[in-house]
Design goal:
It contains twelve helices and 14 strands. The protein has helices at about 15-30, 45-50, 55-65, 90-100, 120-125, 165-180, 195-210, 225-230, 245-255, 295-310, 315-330, 345-360, and strands spanning about 5-10, 35-40, 70-75, 105-110, 130-135, 145-150, 155-160, 185-190, 215-220, 240, 265-270, 275-280, 330, 340-345. α11 crosses α12 (about 345-360). It binds nicotinamide-adenine-dinucleotide. Nicotinamide-adenine-dinucleotide binds near residues 75 and 278.
């Protein structure tokens, strides 16, 4: 398993952005003799079309044997009418669940070159650098019982269950405190402890784990306030940790502070040293096949993968620098385009990153 990387291009723009990200990955693999072995498999809609299932056994087996997985995106309107259990997203959820990828790291960082791309005032967002840690395999998205039934009054009723066990809360707390320790040592735990018992337990356990991290300043915030603070004064946050559903919503809001979801990578880790890396955005069916998608989030996911799974922070920094350099050159895909910059295609953006990376490595 130690050096296996599984590539899952997925659907929509997935194969287009993945093609650019793997060029970068292959380049650093060769240049630094990292010894990574690559394999590829089907997931999501592409897997449904080929095999009838969003997560074929062969893909799951390869995923279990991989040290790291690089995923494009899954989903698209052509699969939206399928039974819920067979939708493309089930491929993604299945990998998360089977590999127990419980810790989702989503950085929301604003490149100074893109300060104008945010809908918020530049002074509110410039220099923004937040890390959102979202619990990914528990909470209401997975809690049982769930379903839609006819209740005792003969009325249809839908229900889900929000539950977290103490070990689930402890392990995500440790990831979040460790992350805060490596950054500005400020951790904000987001819950709804005024209403939901499960988050009263969450808060209690965070207070307990905090005793192991005396150098980290822990604060708590209700999720409604956190949503407000994220758009009012986002720079007050360093590391934010929360459960699955709140994290899903808040991380998308944080993503938009940066102007484009096309710029944001993410990592999902388990406690066996495996990780899945993917851009925060979806499969963008509206621009799929048009060579318009921004590949930078996927390229930055490669950097996260090298940093968190392969302990190659210096190589990760080279890739991040190359991305910053192409932004300095004024190159922009449509999603981050602004007056005065040069609009480029997906492949042109990939070419530019490779060129910038080569220049950095030759210095
Ligand atoms: P989306 O992120 O795919 O697209 C939202 C908007 O952002 C679209 O206008 C799209 O063109 C644009 N966009 C997204 N990524 C871009 C990129 N790299 N470059 C340029 N523009 C980009 O979200 P959606 O439209 O809500 O969902 C589309 C499909 O993706 C759905 O089937 C959904 O279920 C799926 N989805 C998958 C994932 C995933 O695979 N992790 C995540 C979210 C949504």
């Amino acid at each position: 398993m130690s050096n296996n990387v599984l590539i899952l291009p997925g659907d929509g723009i997935g194969p287009e952005i993945m093609a650019q990200a793997t060029r970068v990955l292959n380049h650093v693999n060769e240049h630094f003799s990292l010894g990574l072995n690559f394999d590829e498999a089907l997931v999501g809609g592409a897997a449904i079309d080929a095999t009838g299932h969003p997560l074929p056994d062969e893909t799951l087996e390869k995923a279990k044997n991989a040290k790291a997985i690089l995923l494009g995106a899954v989903g698209g309107p052509q699969w939206d009418t399928l039974d819920m259990a067979l939708r493309p997203e089930k491929g993604l959820l299945g990998i998360r669940k089977n590999l127990s990828l419980f810790a989702n790291l989503r950085p929301a960082m604003l490149y100074p070159q893109l300060a104008d791309a945010s809908t918020l005032k530049p002074e509110v967002v410039s220099g923004l650098d937040i890390m959102i840690v979202r619990e990914l395999t528990g909470g209401i998205y997975f809690g049982q019982p769930r379903g839609v039934e006819i209740n005792s009054e003969g009325v249809r009723e839908g229900f889900n269950t929000y539950r977290y066990s103490e070990p689930e809360i402890r392990r995500i707390a440790h990831v979040a405190f460790d992350m805060a320790q490596k950054r500005d040592k400020k951790l904000c735990s987001v819950d709804k402890a005024n209403v939901l018992e499960v988050t009263v337990l969450w808060r209690e356990i965070f207070e307990d784990v905090a005793k192991d991290y005396p150098d980290v300043e822990l604060s708590h915030m209700y999720v409604d306030n956190a949503a407000m603070q994220l758009v009012r004064a986002p720079k007050q946050f360093d590391v934010v940790v929360t459960g699955n559903m709140f994290g899903d919503i808040l991380s998308d809001a944080a993503a938009m502070l940066t102007g484009s979801i096309g710029m944001l990578p993410s990592a999902s880790l388990n406690d066996k040293g495996q990780g899945m890396y993917e851009p925060c955005h979806g499969s963008a069916p509206d621009i799929a096949g048009e060579n318009k998608a921004n590949p930078l989030a996927t390229i930055l996911s490669v950097a996260m993968m090298l940093r968190y799974n392969f302990n190659q922070s210096a190589v990760a920094e080279n890739i991040e620098q190359a991305v910053s350099d192409v932004l300095d050159q004024g190159l922009r895909t449509g999603d981050i385009f602004s007056e005065g910059s040069t609009q480029v295609t997906t492949t042109e953006m990939g070419d530019a990153v490779l060129k910038a990376l080569t220049a950095i490595l030759e210095k």
